[in-house]
Design a protein that fits this description.
Structural class: alpha/beta
Strand content: 15-25%
Strand order of the largest sheet: 3-2-1-4-5-6
Number of strands: 12
Helix content: 40-55%
Shape: globular
CATH superfamily of the largest domain: NAD(P)-binding Rossmann-like Domain
Number of domains: 2
Radius of gyration: 20 Å
Oligomer: single chain
CATH architecture of the largest domain: 3-Layer(aba) Sandwich
Order of helices and strands: EHEHEHEHEHEHHEHHEEEEEHH
């Protein structure tokens, strides 16, 4: 990789500017070349606000950079990721990688064929305190035995008056399963064996209650929503087993500092030619679990489904 690595941002919205763009502009190993978006005026505005140049032509931006950060909806991201990889550009991508598994496979194939480095920005996995906690949990599991279960809740509200995601079409359509799901799975993956079976139920509004059977009979359950009641917003995760019972700590850093760690690791993986653990193939595999959950939710109800009502409200 060249030094400093020349980066372009594809996207001009809130997250493209306040996270991707701001972190790249502040990183000492990176030169922020500019922004591209479908609206050239918004690309110019983002560049004036954060740094670099606004590009009206995507090819012109790709010709000017070594890497791209994509901060666009997951139904748009795959096509642009393939185009950037085919142009030989390293990639920092958002979660979920794609909403369609064929599109996700196309990104993975193009990155492998081009030999470029990739990192998917899974916030919790790049947070310094979370990474330290996960390392401790892995040490405890090695010393005392594997974790046996986990329970988590990932609840946000895009309906709050100040939410920057209130107009997010894909979040409205796909809900917490696809927005929070990659975060939940990325943390569970660091704690529990691989997922073998998936089941899920629908809850209030967009809520999905995701139940996973991991290898060895271990299990996890996660409730995921982006339309929680205002008083119910927050995140928690509990894990238990022979090593005790432990709770995931809150995120410790700003999004900019956490994103900077992702850039550090992208630079390192590009230097060694080693695949980053949280690359496009990893993100594709997370998506397969979410896709399986969605297919489970959409399955026909058959005769084996039994409705049971045994809890009576006290009179």
């Amino acid at each position: 990789m060249s030094s400093p690595l020349k980066f372009g941002v594809l996207g001009t919205g809130y997250w493209a500017r306040t996270c991707h763009g701001a972190a790249l502009a502040a990183h000492p190993g990176v030169e922020l070349v500019g922004f591209w978006g479908r609206d050239a005026g918004r690309a110019d505005h983002a560049a004036q606000q954060i740094g670099g140049t606004g590009f009206a032509d995507l090819n012109a931006l790709l010709d000017s950079v070594d890497a791209v950060a994509i901060a666009l909806p997951p139904d748009v991201q795959p096509t642009l990721a393939v185009r950037a990889a085919e142009a030989g550009k390293h990639l920092v991508l958002e979660k979920p990688l794609a909403l369609d598994m064929a599109a996700a496979d196309a990104v993975v194939d193009s990155v492998a064929a081009a030999g470029v480095a990739s990192v998917v920005f899974l916030t919790y996995r790049f947070d310094e305190q979370t990474a330290a906690w996960l390392h401790t949990m892995q040490e405890l599991a090695a010393a005392h035995g594997p974790w046996e279960g986990a329970l988590s809740g990932w609840t946000g509200c895009i309906d709050l008056p100040d939410s920057p995601y209130a107009q997010s079409t894909w979040r409205r359509a796909r809900g917490g399963l696809w927005d929070w799901g990659p975060h939940a799975l990325s943390v569970l993956d660091a704690l529990m064996p691989g997922v073998e079976r998936v089941a899920a139920t629908r809850g209030v509004r967009d809520t999905v209650n995701l139940n996973l059977e991991h290898r060895g009979g271990r299990g996890s359950a996660s409730s995921l929503t982006v339309t929680a009641a205002a008083g119910g917003v927050g995140t928690f995760l509990l894990v238990w087993g022979p090593g005790g019972r432990h709770q995931l700590p809150p995120l410790s850093g700003s999004y900019v500092s956490t994103y900077s760690r992702a850039i550090d690791q992208l630079l390192a993986s590009g230097t060694t030619d080693a695949r980053h653990r949280l690359d496009v193939a990893y993100a594709r595999d997370l998506g397969r679990v979410l896709d399986a959950a969605e297919r489970y939710l959409d399955r026909p109800v058959d005769a084996r489904t039994v409705a049971v009502s045994v809890l009576e409200t006290p009179g």
